[in-house]
Amino acid sequence: MIWRSREPRYDVASGISQGARDYQEDAITADFPVGAEAGFVVLADGMGGHAAGDVASKIVLTEVFSELKFHFADVQAFEARAPEILRSVADLANETLRQHTRTHPETEGMGATLVVPALIENRLWWISIGDSPLFLFRGGKLTQLNEDHSMAPQIDFMVKSGLMDPVVGANHPDRNCLISVLMGTRIPKIDCPTRPFELQAGDIVLCASDGVQFLSNAQIEKVLHRYRKARSTEIAEHLLEELERLDDPDQDNISFTVIKVNDASVRPRQERPHRPSATVARPRRPTTVAIEPVAAQMPKVSPGLSPAAGVAPGPRTQAATPLPLPEPKPARTVIAAVQERHPDPSVEDLSPVRLRPRRVTVIK
Fold first, then answer.
1. Which of 115, 284, 300 lies closest to 210, judged by CA?
2. How far apart (Å, rounded) are the C-alpha atoms in residues 227 and 234?
3. Residue 221 in contact with residue 213, Cβ under 8 Å?
4. Contacts of 123 (CB under 8 A, 6+ apart)
5. Is the pTM above the cut of 0.90?
6. Helical segments of the chain, H only
């Protein structure tokens, strides 16, 4: 007789591709420990062209992942303050970007989107800033759960209202203009529900960068429906195959995580293990890099002792130096995003910044 463990609550797999871009500006990680009743994904889609969008996405992912990993040491404590914690980690990542651009002026204008789905049993919390979609596939239908912080919804509304031709709307150059993004300034829009979304067994959650949206929603829905009974790794492979089949010369970076919900049961509260919280107070400051070398203080040697008999002097401690930034990207399309330059929070500056579009137009 062969013993088999029960199917895990979540079946998770991720896919990533550089697409047709010069290098990868997406950053993604998923943390679903084997046998755990909870897990989360962090996805950041960098923007900024020459201003190091890949650096921005890595900064955001590093800060958010480390903070959430810390909070998920006590899942019950996290869920009691989930929206507050999710907003705080986004603020911390945003502040880290601010500090980085201050010390590296050449990266001024870089930024990243952020989407974080956090699952606890059958409950889905999330925070999203930007246009990276969070999809739900249920009952054969694909729907987007999070808000799209780009001009696309407004353009689509104009098309539905008869104010814009459908062909013009579908190819409008401002569809990918972001109205909210992490870039070290005030965050105009944050999508972070105060109550969790309830999942059902058989649901598929797809957290993705907008590179996946080179496929239409109907195409994504078709793939998920056809392979809904397959493992998440197979679904991820077929999504990547569909994107490769497009052979689009403007294909954006691709990153996504597929989460199949196998078990949507809720454990009674009294059956949940009670243990002291593993969380402690942490200083709320961003990660920084030491620029000036720091000399290690040498212990004193007692009189009459040779250095060998006492404590031998050691080498000076070398401080970490910043990693070199990647070669600049060619300039892409320049479009508008909200950026704060005024100390007055009631004043919004809609200054243009560089942002990567889905369909790239190179400016000579």
1. 115
2. 8
3. no
4. 79, 196, 197, 198, 199
5. no
6. 53-71, 75-80, 82-103, 152-160, 166-170, 217-226, 232-246
